[in-house]
């Protein structure tokens, strides 16, 4: 670059002297020889300066490149619910459905070394909806700050961490599960701060903090003010040891409003991986809002991988506790036996779901079978 500018300057200086001699021989008294030399010199130096500025602008632009990508995952599922005991006829039947997600992502690096990444996922099942949108700023040794417009709260990310070959047991029930709602109150219009990981005695310690100025309320559009909602906060911590043992947990807390009492929740888990085998155990507790009945539960699962095949078995239990004169409901149990086979970007999976005491009602049983083929690009 320096050689280029030196050559450019040399060529322009030669032009200056040639033009100066020409003007000197043809002056008719209108301008002085010194005046013309000054004008010609300034014009040529201005050209050199503009060329240097253009070169520096090109270099600055290339240093702030932004990389974008698009990923697509499409899934066709056959579901069958047959032979249910004491369940409604509406829960019986079979059908084929297709679900396609389109994920847009991009990242870039700022001059000071910080990174900026964006993620946006569209769910095209029936209607095109926004299922996930986040903006994350990586600040190096200062950690990462993430803005969660739709989804993305770190607390909601650990609602169910048990290993599975396909889906969670609560995915195959007609009832409402409380196992997967941890952190959902802080999932839209919130901020997540991820502390830098700490290495200590063979263990990696990671922690996060969530804050939502209006919990349980959808995020407003940029520059707008959201509806009435109490603020909420939460935090998570995980300790992953090199031996394969991971221990973690978190809590959430949402304040009161005039129309709604606050709520809180907590979860804790332990997982162990050794070669192809992974086992896990998790507990949760939800202190419901508006003085509704609290719930608690636990679950365990094991998964085994052999080459491209993965098998899993998982069980989850939920208990809706007594409140006032209202007695506790029956404990609901959900289980799943699953298998999955992956071939590059294609995965074939099967799952047998079974739920007992659905919604805490004794003798209500639900069984479902799913066969799935999915493609990822």
Pick out its properties.
377 residues, 2 domains, Porin
What are the SSEs and their pairings?
Blueprint: H1 2-26, H2 33-63, E1 66-81, E2 93-109, E3 115-123, E4 129-138, E5 144-150, E6 190-194, E7 198-200, E8 203-212, E9 232-241, E10 245-254, E11 263-274, E12 277-287, E13 295-306, E14 309-320, E15 332-343, E16 346-356, E17 365-376
Antiparallel strand pairs: 1-2, 1-17, 2-3, 3-4, 4-5, 5-6, 6-8, 7-8, 8-9, 9-10, 10-11, 11-12, 12-13, 13-14, 14-15, 15-16, 16-17
Written account of the structure:
This protein is mainly beta and 377 residues long. The chain folds into two domains: 60 residues; 309 residues, Porin (Beta Barrel), CATH 2.40.160.10. The protein is built from two helices and 17 strands. It has a 16-stranded antiparallel beta barrel with strand order 1-2-3-4-5-6-8-9-10-11-12-13-14-15-16-17. It is globular, with a radius of gyration of 32 Å.
Question: TL;DR of this structure?
Answer:
The protein is mainly β and 377 residues long. The chain has helices at residues 2-26, 33-63; strands at residues 66-81, 93-109, 115-123, 129-138, 144-150, 190-194, 198-200, 203-212, 232-241, 245-254, 263-274, 277-287, 295-306, 309-320, 332-343, 346-356, 365-376.
